[in-house]
Amino acid sequence: MPTDSEVLIEIRDLGKSFGDHEVLRSIDLDVHKGEVISIIGPSGCGKSTFLRSINLLEVPTHGSIVFEGIDILDPKTDVDLLRRRIGMVFQSFNLFPHKTVKENIMMAPVKLQVMTEGEASAKADELLAKIGLSDKADQYPSRLSGGQQQRVAIARALAMNPDVMLFDEPTSALDPEMVGEVLKIIKDLADSGMTMLVVTHEMGFAREISDRVLFINDGTIAEENVPEELFGNPQNERLRDFLSKVL
Amino acid sequence: MQRKQLIALVAVMSVLCLMGTSLCVSTDVEAADGRTLVVETSPDFAPFDYQVGKEYAGIDMDIVRAVCNDMGCNVEFRTNTFDSILMSVPSGKCDIGASGFSISEERAQIVDFSIPYAEINQVVVAPKDTTIQDKEDLNGKIISVQTGTTGADYASSNYDRNNIKFQKTYSDVLLDLNTGKADAEIVDSTVALAQCAANPNLQVLDILDDSPVEQYGFIFSKDNTALRDEFNDSLQHIMDNGLYDMIMEYYEENGYSPETPSFFTTKGTIVVETSPDFPPYDNMHGQEYTGIDMDIMRAIGYVTGYNIEFRQNTFDSVIVSVQQGKCDVGASGFTINDERREKVDFTTPYAEIHQVLVVKEDSNIQTKEDLRGKTITSQLSSSGADYATDHLKDSNLIQQKDYNIALLDVISGKAVAEVVDNTVAEAQVAANDGLKILDILDDAEVEYYGLIIKKGNTEMYNLVNDALEKLIADGTVDRIIEYYTSHIGEDIASYYSGDAAREDTGGDDDDDDDDAAAVGWWQELKDRFHNDFLKNDRYMYIFDGLKNTLIITAVALVIGLVLGSIVAMVRSTHDMTGKLKIINAICHLYITVIRGTPVMVQLLLIYYVVFVSSDNGILIASVAFGINSGAYVAEVIRSGITAVPKGQMEACRSLGMSNRMAMTNVILPQAFRNIMPAIGNEGISLLKETSVAGYIGIMDLTRGADIIRGQTYDALLPILVAAAIYLAIVLVLTFFIRRLERRLNSAY
Ligand SMILES: Nc1ncnc2c1ncn2[C@@H]1O[C@H](COP(=O)(O)OP(=O)(O)OP(=O)(O)O)[C@@H](O)[C@H]1O
Ligand SMILES: [Mg+2]
After folding, report:
1. CB of A47 closer than 6 A to ligand 1?
2. Model-level pTM?
């Protein structure tokens, strides 16, 4: 797979503690352009913390993250500018309830003046068509099902034309019958060549879309491999244990 | 939609305020009925009519001012020539002519005269070294007169015309005398005095015993006898109560000099505070401050030439106000004692009283010893309370905010006796059935009442005390006290007010028609309602009070919103980013202190400590309640912001939006929905909390009802009405808050 293509994110010795509680000890990872990486691991092992460190929703305790050649931990770096290029999708959707679906999608590009109203509107229409929710453009989020809301949240992140997408358990809050529609969107996105990091409990899905799967345990990447190897021939004992529980 | 709701809310508040204001406008003008009488004069006849600068001065002008004030109407003076006024009045171009018109048969054909207000005869003015001694001596002498005057008429009919010089003006006449061109002048007695005052070499010789005695009267149209009669009543009243004499004395003392400004020209204002719930010393009659203290102050105003402005405050607070210079004089039946002497200066005493007991008629208390172990009551900080604390140690003393509540203790049986000054006791017993006075406190010291003035303010002290001593010496104080003590227990107008005259003579139009049968609870309730609200326009206390309550609430809410928003922003910013540490600490302290202390204590602190130099009670109260409200509003806003899920901010930030952008576009609009109803509720509690504003002397709705109680002794009805008004406002506000809430909730 494209391991030889350009490195988009270079993570070295990343650590994060909440007070005394050391959640991440030391993580090293190169994310290549166009790569799709799944992150798995037991609950509370720090998957979300790791993902949120990448766009600085959590500030790492130590280590370095270089994104597109910029040291994002450098105090001089404009974090807001950086975040425009990193899309994020949350487990709990976090749509803006007081705005319509279309307004949700258009808000950031317009307010940040990266697009005009017209451009943002066209972009929103295009994204809505892609996620199959053109008819819901003027609805408030509270009128949408969970699956529909998460699809809008994905569209909202995509509206900023990010270089990388971070998904934090995008389907965990959904009723089972809605999981499929969201996963399909993510898969389409992966197929279109988007660089993605996906924290997920859907092992089948991880296996299907990933170029690489990371297993986080004890604050480090305990094992990483192509999905066939990682799932088919797990080396780490904890991973075997974990897989035996979830599969 | 949200904005519309807000506008609606603001609109309702302002309509309520306007309602309050417009209902009260009429009382702000001094004249109760807003009438203005146009008075024409020819201001060239000192000391009766002249001008000092633009101001009309002179005996006529000031009597007209005094009478019109007594009638309760405004005056507008206009200049006209003497002859033209005699045409202007009958044609109705003006209401009154006041220009030294002597009353004559001829003039009485075309105009009506008031009762005479001045009497003039003709006198001789001659140099001090003249040989003239009686009217015969004038034969052969050169006599100078002003053409057209009574003096000219008299001279030409009694002396040789060849010896008479007819001059155009008094100045020419005086020139004749001073240059020796004439030996004597024949002239009106008052004008003569003025001339001699200005020319020390001249003297008045009152030797023309056969000269006609003229009387001056004001003139009215023959078509307006009602105005004339009303004017006459008030003129008689100011003659009776001594104001007329004060005016006349004033001009005499100033030597009838045409430089003398109007008696009513104020040299300044003396601000007087009182607790108007202590008849017969301090009371209200409708909107008018009445009582012995108040009228003594009015008389002091007349004597000193100062305008007296009355304000009300609670008894205790009056002393503090005087100490802090928020007012010039405290006049509220203050007993002179050493403790108070340390805080303020006392004037010469003007009244003498001692403590008695008020008990029920069937009380079996006969001696002081009978009070042992019983509950007694008195007004907080009053001499009665002091006496009880010192001499009735074995009794259980209740101290009430005012002596009316203390009396209610006796009536309701909560206390067996009230300890109170004898004058108040007489008023209370006269006004309430089934009570009697026990004059058995033989060890109670005789007390003296004095006015209080800030220590060290010798200028004010001398001004007031000199005037007071003069009024005591000339019997004015006695007359005032006599007036009130002969009407004890009645609700009477000021000694100096026109209402006093009218009520004395024509009281039959008041509520004496009550005896027209129809008893029963309904009639009684109607009577109480009439007495509490309609009589003497007492409803104005409720309206004025309501206006003040609404103003204070609205202004305080605005201040609270602004302050609260700022504090909430600081606190939230600190919560989210950790910045603004010091300001946040200050805000935190502010919220802790405000929420940890009673609003009334805050109000008193702000009034007496922070705003020592200001006496704008409404403003201070608004600020105090605003500061108080700000703390609650801040927490409402902060919790409204906190209630917005954390993920909202994270979603914004993950899209690259700044903290501020996220706040304005996402967090605050959502917080608004949580905040608005809570702000509305804050407004409602604020409205109710303002009811303690009375403690700094503001007449809010509660205090207004309180004052009515103090006047009518009706303990319940005024409070019930106040409660109903509060409730009505709260229900209206609640309705709008509910609607707003529903609208907000259905928005998304
Ligand atoms: N803001 C925080 N303060 C303190 N501890 C935190 C904070 N956020 C996360 N943690 C702790 O860090 C650890 C890792 O949390 P994280 O949410 O990254 O786990 P996770 O792997 O995503 O788990 P899950 O699969 O349940 O989502 C947990 O023990 C959690 O309690
Ligand atoms: Mg997680």
Report:
1. yes
2. 0.58
